[in-house]
Structure formats: structure tokens, C-alpha cells
Amino acid sequence: MTDTAFDVKDFRRALSQFPTGVTVITALDTEGQPVGVTASSFNSVSIDPPLILWSIDKGAHSLSAFEKAEHFAVNVLGRDQVDTSNRFASRGEDKFKDVAWHPGLGDAPVLDEYAAQFECKTWAVYEGGDHLILVGEVKEYRYDNAVLPLVFSRGGYAVSAQHPAMAKTMATETEGDFVGDYLLYLLRATYNRYCAKLYPKLQEQCNISPEEWRIVIRLTDHGRLPVAELSAMVMQPDDSLRATVDLLIEKGLASYTNASTLSITAQGQEIGKQMQDIAHAEEAELLSLLPDDQAKQLKGNLKTILEKLSSAS
């Protein structure tokens, strides 16, 4: 690959194949005001001394604050903090409004909710192309084993889950055990196996990734949708959603009606209908394992549970 052939968008897609955690980095600016950004570049560096690093875009509004801050905190987000991630990934708003936090080490703000937290003293700042790399020495840390961490992968939010191969191994090992009769395990194991069959077919027959599938299938039903609404539907932050949409536009499957609204094209509708047929066939094969009345009851019960959980949250 030569410099002239370097495709920035394609490079980002390649990077998105590596799943990361999602963090909000917080500090105080020189006027004592809290600043925060969403970052997936967090990583460990050293155990002795305990060092971590993350990087910030040189175009970020809060660049100067983090570059000059003596202390900062890394707040690793949990699976229920998608809204928090989106808030701190946005520009031009009071990011800390309605977010519970308190002063930590060096008065740097720390969020009240987290999967893990690392309070750091700035150890070094390095140049890194169009980013600055900040290394922090961990002075305090804490974590909550009860909180499943939020994951960012292939342009969208996800949660860590057991690999289907492990689920297959455990299927016989858990018979008669608590886990083998636990609803959450049963739902997750079924989901993993279902996706392991569906997604490769969508890629092979339609040249559509899971992230593209979620967007196209929504647009197939609705025709057009506001980007903000679509972002919430498919669990992708705005920037990542637009990157996936750019690829769909290149494929001729979608187009912008205006800056804030996305529409599906005739070709997109055709691909969407094809994917619906594939998905329906997979669903029918799965439900054929049950008598018709039990299959209908299963879907009805799951819808009821989902509706009640949604109304309670």
C-alpha cells in the first residue's frame, strides 16, 4: 500500500475490527471547569509503575485542558451507559448536565456510575500524529464486577459475551445446573448461535455487514429516518453511524434527503427485502424446532417481556 492509495475511511473500517472498551476521560480546565471526552483509545502500559495511556484528537475543543491538566480520570463505562458515551462524544453542549459526578484526585471529576475507574496523575504527554498521547500514573482505582462493560466494535456499541464455541461446550456441562436453567444464559446462548448462522449469510449473499444490516433493515421498513433517531435504533454513535452510512452510500443503498435525514434507495429496498427473506428463512428454521403454537407463544412472550422491561426503565 502506497501513501497515494491510502484510504482513510477504509483504514478506519479495518481498525473497527478490533473491539475496544468505551471510556469517558475527565479533568478540570485551567479555570477549574470540568471537561470530558469519550475515548476508546485507553490501554494499559505498565504494572510497575502502574501506567495507562489514551489519546486525544488535536482538533478536540478540550485538547488544551487535558494537555495542561495535572490529573485526569478514566471512567470505563458499563453496558447501560450508551447515553453517557454519546453525550461526551458530542460537541457544543454542557456534557456534565444531568450526569452524576463528584471531585476526585486533584479535583478531577469522576462519574458516579462506572464499570471501572482509574484516577491518574499525568505522567507524560507525547506527539502522535494528529493526536496527543497522554500517559497517566494510576493513583487510585476501583471496579464493579456486577457491571458488564460497554464495548465498541465495528462502528457500534456491543457487550462482551461468551463465544458460541464455549456455549456449545457448556451445553452438556450445564444440564441440571443453575446456569443451564437460567433465562439470561439461555437467551444469550440462543442469540450467539442464531447470529453465527445469520450474519455470514448476509455477508455472503448480500455483501452486508451486521452494522449495515441494522441500518438497511430499519430503512427498508421506514423509507427514511432522522439520523439521530436511527442512531438510537441501531446503537451507534452519530460519528460511527455516518461512517457506516458513507459505505452504504458508496454501495448505492442509501442517500441523504438532507443533512439530518437518511433515505433508502431503490437498490437498498431490493437488498433490504432480500435480507428480510434470508432472516425469515433463518427464523422459520429455528422455530420449526417447536410446534406452531409454542413458536407463536415464544415470540409473544418475548415481546411482552421486552415491553414491560422498556416501560419500567
Automatic annotation (TrEMBL):
GO terms for molecular function: FMN binding; riboflavin reductase (NADPH) activity. The keyword Oxidoreductase applies. This is Flavin reductase. Residues 15-159 form the Flavin reductase like domain. Belongs to the non-flavoprotein flavin reductase family. Keywords: Oxidoreductase. It comes from Oceanospirillum sediminis. Pfam families: Flavin_Reduct.
